[in-house]
Design a protein that fits this description.
The complex is a heterodimer of chains A (155) and B (760). Chain A has 155 residues and is α+β, with helices and mostly antiparallel strands. Helix content of chain A is 32%, strand content 17%. Chain A has helices at 25-32, 88-95, 105-118, 124-130, 142-154, and strands at residues 3-10, 13-20, 51-54, 57-60, 73-75. Chain A has a five-stranded mixed β-sheet, with helices on one face. The longest helix of chain A has 14 residues, at 105-118. Chain B is globular, with a radius of gyration of 27 Å. Classes of the chains: A alpha+beta (155), B alpha+beta (760). Chains A and B meet through α2, α3, α4 and α5 of A and α1 and α17 of B.
Chain lengths: 155, 760
């Protein structure tokens, strides 16, 4: 098993690491960096629980190999609240009742963040589309959609 | 008492950890020196095990234990209901593709996986049975020594022959439902840690940790006080993290005790789907007699439930079905038989609804078929037959509590304009057009809590601290449904505390007493009554303290916003000061709460008795658009009305309704766990499709509150009733649009277009 040197920005901090070439980004985050907020639900890019923001776009971190992070900018759920203050999307998720079991929540919040960074005032269809790669079995999605609308209004 | 916490829209008290990624789920735990475990599974769904050779696997560097059934110190047959038939590790036979042959612990997962590939097993392959009716044929191979029948329940009421002879028409229909996977997004995970006293502590996403502990103690041959189960944050369950998690807990505990080190196993999604139990597929034969005016005179029902490889909850799931099989209707003559049988598919057990989503599909679509045959509107035929207060159910129970069926049915029909739209869309059927609209109605009644299937009580421990904060310790668990928040609301209501002053402890079997499993939509009613009981005891002592601090009152103190007020003189004191005074007076400010649920009864021979101590009522209307060329069904909108007694947290009630409808839509048109000769084919979310944000309809909720004297502040339940109505409402809407009766689920493209499934 080979190791590859990578430099990238994680949650606003520059990192330089030797990473095994055969692990995925979600494994790098969870197993090596102890950032367990990124969840693992299917490992084939279907459930979206492992969503992180990479260079401004939401990606399934189970489909990204660790060496591919070289030169990139990555935000995980741990990087969203600043100085202990919740991001408005996080606040809106709590307020709207969008958090049930919470296992899809980090991925959902980051998909919402990537959407609102691009389109600050999305339509319902744009919201549905943006979270269509994030499975949730608890909520039936409506409280999540409502939360993203609330966050959009607070922007 | 004016409600100040109960009934308010309340954000979840445990959501901050979940939105920041700090909440600890089982797989997030890493203990020092922890090993990684792997389950080695069978290659055949049904076979005798002739020999297992683990010698090569044991020699792999980094492997610390390879265990087979021989290494289990206690019992190796477990179960959550009556029959105990499931091995932790298979010994004589394998009966489905999830059966384990060995378990391995190694320094890392890849080493454990490599070692697993070196285990050699000799099998004698046996024929595979997939169908429960076939399983009961005399000539069928026996999956278990006792034969393939798991259980048989019946209901006998009135005189079935007389009932049919009174009928003007008789309608018969066979229905088949599919196997459904719970699809909690968090796969099963558990970590076991050996303790100094020879015991073991298991962290994990066990739904019912007291059941887990009971089974662990039996399997490990340990006393219960040396087995500690700690529930980690649960990433969903829907009934699905009972048996499968009990067994996983045993597997990690066996490895931890064998190696003396902590061991974690987290299933991949494929392992989760192959290992875990599902919702029973049902084959249902319904025969109903009616008079020309729509009055039902008789119903004769025979159901075969596919129990899969092990009994699990089959005995109780099918019991709930037999009680409710005739739906929320007044039927004087009933004969119902339900059989659960072993097959070589995944075992089936508890899943949200627990035997009700299947039968609701049958009786509610049949109701529309009867209406069509008699030329009566589906609304009218229901109004004619719906149970009313004082009526007698199929099991002979007089419904003396308020029956809210007419209210919920009228609420959804008015909101959706069901009566007019149904007629309009029916008249549209014959007109040209590729896209046809349809609208459908479904309603149900549902027994709350365990009913006559179990012993029903709740207990808790409340501890007010000297600074006016409160700790709640209770065994009713939060799997994401919001139990902690409503538990805190009940305590807040009685003690006048704000929610930020209340902690609900993580659940640990050695800390909180057992309140029975968190199942059967019993959490709110059972925990609410236990907490109310304890909080009232603390409140009484605070009142005694207040009499000295702010004077006596005959109109009762007001507890609100962390203060206690004497309304007669306007004097007030903080709860903190009242608590300090109570301590000085040597009055306890902690209390145990206990709630014994009302008695129920059941006569197994006749299927008559007080099946449940109270019921909830619900109705859905679904509007769909069907593409007549492709068979694609687009669900446009669902209206849902549920009578819940009292909505303790309306936000939570709506969340349950939205989620239940989404899951019901999956049952109706999308999901199917498929097999090919006993081998699962749909083992990840690329093949097993659950609804995404693009699939969900608009949803409108109408919550009806008729407080029940049995419930805390009148509250009953909501979790499961939301999951039994969307599918039949959608199927009825498809019929309204197309004129085609659908009697199997899911109503996917082939079923809608061709009327039957295409085999893989």
């Amino acid at each position: 098993m080979g190791y590859v040197k990578v430099r990238f920005e994680l949650n606003g901090r520059e990192l330089e690491l030797e990473v095994p070439s055969n692990i995925t980004l979600v494994e790098l985050l969870r197993e090596r960096l102890n950032l367990t907020g990124t969840k693992k639900g299917c490992e084939i890019g279907e459930c979206g629980a492992c969503t992180v923001i990479m260079n401004g776009a939401p990606v399934n971190s189970c489909l990204v190999l660790a060496p591919q992070v070289d030169g990139s900018r990555i935000t995980t759920i741990e990087g969203l609240s600043k100085n202990g203050k919740l991001d408005i999307i996080q606040k809106a998720f709590i307020e709207a009742g969008a958090v049930h079991c919470g296992f899809c929540t980090p991925g959902m919040v980051l998909s919402a963040k990537a959407l609102l960074d691009k389109i600050p005032h999305p339509t319902i269809d744009e919201i549905k589309e943006a979270i269509s790669g994030n499975l949730c079995r608890c909520t039936g999605y409506w409280q999540i959609i409502k939360a993203i609308q609330m966050a959009s209004e607070m922007l | 008492m004016s409600a100040w916490a109960v009934g308010k829209r309340t954000p979840r008290i445990d959501s901050i950890g979940k939105v920041t990624g700090k909440a600890i789920y089982a797989d997030d735990i890493k203990l020092p020196g922890m090993l990684y475990g792997k389950v080695v599974r069978t290659k055949y769904p049904h076979a005798k095990i002739l020999n297992i050779d683990i010698s090569e696997a044991k020699r792999v560097k980094g492997v610390e234990a390879v265990l087979t059934a021989k290494d289990i110190p206690g019992v190796n047959r477990v179960g959550v209901a009556i029959t105990k038939d499931q091995p932790i590790i298979a010994d004589d036979k394998v009966r489905y593709m999830g059966d384990a042959l060995a378990i391995i612990a190694a320094h890392d997962l890849r080493t454990a996986q490599f070692a697993a590939s070196l285990i050699k097993v000799e099998y004698e392959v046996l024929p595979v049975i997939e169908d429960p009716e076939e399983a009961l044929f005399e000539a069928s191979v026996k999956i278990h020594d006792k034969g393939n029948l798991i259980c048989h329940h019946k209901v006998r009421k009135g005189n079935i022959d007389a009932g049919f002879s009174e009928a003007d028409i008789i309608v018969e229909r066979k229905f088949e439902t599919q196997m459904v996977e719970h699809s909690y997004i968090e796969p099963e995970s558990a970590i076991a840690e050996p303790l100094d006293d020879g015991g073991v502590r298991v962290f994990g996403c066990m739904q019912n940790i007291y059941t887990s502990r009971r089974i662990l103690a039996q399997v490990l041959n340990l006393p219960m006080n040396k087995v500690v189960c700690v529930q980690t944050t649960m990433g969903g369950s829907f009934g699905g993290k009972d048996d499968a998690m009990n067994i996983l807990a045993c597997r990690v505990a066996l490895l931890a005790l064998a190696t003396g080190k902590p061991v974690k196993i987290t299933y991949t999604r494929d392992e989760s789907m192959i290992d875990s139990y599902k919702r029973h597929p049902y084959k249902m034969y319904y025969r109903v007699g009616l008079k020309n005016d729509g009055t039902i005179t008789a119903a004769e029902i025979k159901i075969y439930a596919n129990g899969g490889a092990y009994a699990s909850m089959s005995e109780f799931v099918t019991w709930r079905s037999v009680v409710h099989a005739t739906g929320p209707y007044r039927i004087p003559n009933v004969s119902t038989d339900i059989y659960a049988a072993y097959t070589n598919l995944n075992y089936t057990g508890a899943m949200r609804g627990f035997g009700s989503p299947q039968i609701a599909l049958a009786y509610e679509t049949l109701m529309d078929e009867c209406a069509e045959k008699l030329g009566i509107h589906p609304y009218e035929i229901r109004k004619k037959n719906l149970l009313r207060t004082g009526d007698t159910t199929a099991t002979g129970q007089v419904l003396d509590g308020k029956v809210s069926l007419n209210e919920v049915v009228d609420a959804v029909c008015e909101a959706s304009d069901f009566i007019n739209k149904y007629t309009e869309y029916k008249n549209n059927r014959a007109r040209p057009g590729i896209r046809k609209r349809g609208i459908g109605l479904a309603c149900s009644y549902r027994g709350v809590s365990l009913g006559a299937e179990g012993v029903d009580y709740g207990t808790c421990f409340l501890k007010l601290e000297e600074d006016g904060t409160l700790i709640i310790s209770i065994g009713i668990t939060d799997m994401g449904q919001g139990a902690r928040t409503v538990q805190a609301q009940f305590a807040a209501e009685i003690l006048g505390l704000t929610l930020d002053r209340i902690s609900v402890l993580d659940i640990n079997t050695s800390r909180a007493p057992d309140s029975g499993p968190t199942v059967a939509s019993r959490g709110t009613l059972i925990s609410g009554n236990a907490i109310t009981n304890a909080a009232q005891k603390i409140r009484r002592n605070l009142e005694l303290a207040c009499e000295q601090l702010i004077g006596k009152t005959s109109s009762g103190f007001i507890f609100e916003n962390n203060m206690i007020i004497n309304p007669e003189n306007g004097r007030a004191v903080s709860i903190k000061d009242a608590a300090a005074k109570a301590i000085k007076m040597r009055l306890p400010i902690h209390a145990e709460g206990f709630y014994p649920a009302p008695q129920t009864s059941w006569d197994e021979a006749t299927g008559q008795g007080l099946a449940y101590f109270t019921y909830v009522y619900g109705a859905n209307v679904a509007e769909v658009e069907v593409d007549m060329e492709t068979g694609k069904v687009n669900v446009l909108k669902v209206w849902a009305s549920h009578e819940v007694g009292k909505a303790v947290n309306p936000e939570g009630v709506e969340g349950q309704i939205y989620g239940g409808i989404a899951m019901g839509l999956g049952l109706g048109i999308l999901e199917e766990f498929e097999f090919k000769n006993g081998v699962p084919q749909t083992t990840n979310f690329d093949e097993y499709l659950i609804p995404t944000s693009m699939d969900i309809p608009e949803i409108e909720c109408r919550i009806v509150e008729n407080p029940d004297p049995i419930g805390p502040f009148g509250a009953k339940s909501i979790g499961e009733p939301t999951n039994e109505l969307a599918a039949p409402a959608i199927l009825n809407a498809i019929f309204n649009a197309t004129g085609k009766r659908i009697s199997e689920t899911p109503a996917n493209l082939e079923v809608v277009l061709l009327g039957h499934k295409l085999k893989r």
